[in-house]
Amino acid sequence: MTPQTIKIVSLVGIVxxxxxxxxxxxxxxxxxxxQQGDDVVLDFSEVTLMTQSFCHALISEVIRSFxxxxxxxxxxxxxxxxxxxxxxxxxxxxQ
Length: 95
Description:
The protein is of the alpha/beta class. The protein is 54% helix and 17% strand. Helix 2 (19-35) packs parallel to helix 3 (52-66) and helix 3 (52-66) crosses helix 4 (81-94).
């Protein structure tokens, strides 16, 4: 099965900071894909900055609902070191 790729820059631009948009991405794209058994690739190509609140809104509820093992089905692709650092902070917090 091909994973569903969600290109973040096309939804938020190069700065991922709007937590309402992150919530919409989670509800409309990430959760349904996981529920139907698909893996998800969150593609951060061209995203230069992400706030911690955006990342929390994007993945915290997914982890809370599905459990921490759901991260085996979610990939974070093409992250800058700064974006990767925010993802790691949020994942660590959720554990």
